[in-house]
Predict the 3D structure of the following.
Amino acid sequence: MKKLLLIVLTVNLCLMCVSCYYDEAIEVEIPEIPPDEEISFSEDIQPIFVQDGKNCTTCHNGTVANPDLRVGNAYNAIVPDLVVPGNAEASVFYQRLPGNNHPVEAGFLLNTNEIALIKAWIDRGAENN
C-alpha cells in the first residue's frame, strides 16, 4: 500500500511539473510611434506615472520602492541608471514596466500605447524635455 501511494504521489508530482512546462507567455505587440511624433518627458512620459487608476507613485515615491517616479524626481531617478538612452530593450526600466514584466503585482497594467510611448522615448535618446 505504501508503495502504491509513493507511485501515485510521484506521478502527480511529475504531471504538475510537466503542466508548467507547456505554459505559454502571451506576446503583446507594441505599436510603433511615428518618427515625426514629438515625445516630451514632462508632457508625455511623466503623466503616465501619475494618472488616475494607474499611479506608479503609490509605491515609487522615494520611500517604498525605487525608482522615485514623483514629478520632479523621476527623470534623475531613472536616467542613466535604469535607462540606456537609445536602447529601450537594454533598459531595465522598460523591461520592468507594469504590463511588460513588472517584478511584483502593481495592481494595474500600462496599456500597449503607454508602453510604446516609453519605448519610443528611450529609443530616441531619453531626453529630459
User: Anything to note?
Assistant: The chain has five helices and two strands.
